[in-house]
């Protein structure tokens, strides 16, 4: 419907009313008739769950489905760019992943964001069963928002769950990775295949985002990514160097300490001069 408005800046004219027909929506429209359509009234974002307070947020992230949360500010240019992309992804992933959004321009939104030290917009966090696992830092394209470099079929451990898990399970292969690391990204599909084929076995395959859980990284002296460490009876035993599906599974079914990879020529005590540097 068309509404006649008079504005000190834009003058008189008519504008198409494209919002919900509710008291609050009409009231907000009359206060700022030329403002952008509010995110929570945009039909293109119909599958995005807007979280208005901390109580609802805490319940949301404990749901069984993995959840991606966008912390945004309506005035932010980068947020406006990701807005249609986020709506498309929410529709594409409906029933598989919850895509939620928190308006950091509101007092209640700021309370939610305080815990996660949100200082810039947009900021995206990936949650699974109540744990904030992956602060997403990649490009904001339709593909990369949902196809993040996370091990989707592999259980992730955090600083809260790590020690309990490795003590509870006698044999655990831990993959330390970082989302920005290309080698970690290349290893992801391999580890997922290993985890699928190892279901039901005594060896557990898990992952830790080293960039997000620095305390674990420091304790176990993880000096690069990706790193595969075998934990036995709650203690770190040794590093595993296999990087192919068959090799990792072969080792996992009979976990013996592997030989160290052969040193490259330039690291050996030899009279040969290496000219590749």
TrEMBL record:
<feature type="domain" description="Thioredoxin">
    <location>
        <begin position="26"/>
        <end position="167"/>
    </location>
</feature>
<dbReference type="InterPro" id="IPR017937">
    <property type="entry name" value="Thioredoxin_CS"/>
</dbReference>
<dbReference type="InterPro" id="IPR051063">
    <property type="entry name" value="PDI"/>
</dbReference>
<dbReference type="InterPro" id="IPR036249">
    <property type="entry name" value="Thioredoxin-like_sf"/>
</dbReference>
<dbReference type="GO" id="GO:0006457">
    <property type="term" value="P:protein folding"/>
</dbReference>
<dbReference type="GO" id="GO:0003756">
    <property type="term" value="F:protein disulfide isomerase activity"/>
</dbReference>
<comment type="similarity">
    <text>Belongs to the protein disulfide isomerase family.</text>
</comment>
<dbReference type="Pfam" id="PF00085">
    <property type="entry name" value="Thioredoxin"/>
</dbReference>
<dbReference type="InterPro" id="IPR013766">
    <property type="entry name" value="Thioredoxin_domain"/>
</dbReference>
<protein>
    <recommendedName>
        <fullName>Thioredoxin domain-containing protein</fullName>
    </recommendedName>
</protein>
<dbReference type="GO" id="GO:0005783">
    <property type="term" value="C:endoplasmic reticulum"/>
</dbReference>
